[in-house]
Amino acid sequence: MDDGMKHICCLLAAMVLLFLCSGCSTKETAELPADPVVAKLILAQEAAKVNYVEGETFDPTGLIVNAKMSDGTVVENVPFTLEVDTPLTRTTLFAVMRYEGKTVNQQLRITLLGNDEQYSAANMQYVPGSALEGKLFYWLGSSVTYGASACGESMADFLAKRDGAVCIKEAVSGTTLADVKKESYVQRFNSYLLSEGCAKHVDAFICQLSTNDRNMPESFGTVSGEQVREPEAFDCAMTFGAIEYIIAKVEEVWGCPVLFYVNPPLDENYETMVNGLEQIAQKWGIQIVDMYHDVAFNQLTEEQRSLYMADAIHPTRAGYRDWWLPKFEEALELAVKP
Prior knowledge:
This protein is an alpha/beta fold and 338 residues long. It has helices at residues 3-30, 143-146, 155-163, 185-194, 239-253, 268-284, 302-308, 317-336; strands at residues 38-45, 51-53, 64-69, 74-75, 81-83, 94-99, 102-107, 109-111, 136-141, 166-171, 204-208, 258-262, 287-290. The strands form four sheets. A five-stranded parallel beta sheet has the order 10-9-11-12-13, with helices on both faces. It has a three-stranded antiparallel beta sheet with strand order 1-3-4, with no helix packed on it. The protein is elongated, with a radius of gyration of 34 Å.
């Protein structure tokens, strides 16, 4: 074999050896285990305190967070960073713990400041000598009458406690005056009138101008003529027809004063309903507890509004107790006055 062929063979042998070594190196490198990384965080132990009143500061005492790694192992009690509103607000839902790009949440329960126990009906002081003491009042409504954003307590409950009145509260959240959905005002009122426990005498009847009806303006209807007075004459599928039907039934069954109450200002649809109610009130001679047009009543500071209202529609306990209750006491004292 000449020198040229020997040189070529040597080159080929070197290339083959290099290829084989390179393959072995790549295979060995690929098989080296990667460093484990955090796959997810685990809330191993909740904070000792999860119930707060808005405005308080979250206390992370007791929180333990573990990290599950990509290789299946678990690292306990990792040094997380905490992300949470300070101070806590009514919209705070979670405290967030973060570590190595992963997060885990601690759910929090925030009580509105206006719903603190100090504002509860249980802590309302009875005041003897009220003109409303012993009077029986029937309340018909939906979430505002129920106290949906105030732990189920509304002006009816505070009036019963402070004034010694007896309050029947027939209220179901989300329902309408117009008899177009299950458990409408009309359906529930008729059911009560047919029940064995129906009161024989009521000193005053108080009904809410439902904020739910404002979402279906096509069902407002019109106010009937002066001569239309029989309950059966009204179209209860319409809001105004349902209002007139209820008034007519109260007059027929109890012959007691009728009061409708309206929320503070909301939107154009609700204003249309308020205007229609005013026409009905003039026709039937009923009283309106008017929180819509009362400018002085609605002059609240931002601090008061935050304390008194859970949202644009629903009061808190403090709102019912300190803001709305005096308005209803005044109206009912006038209604039951001999």
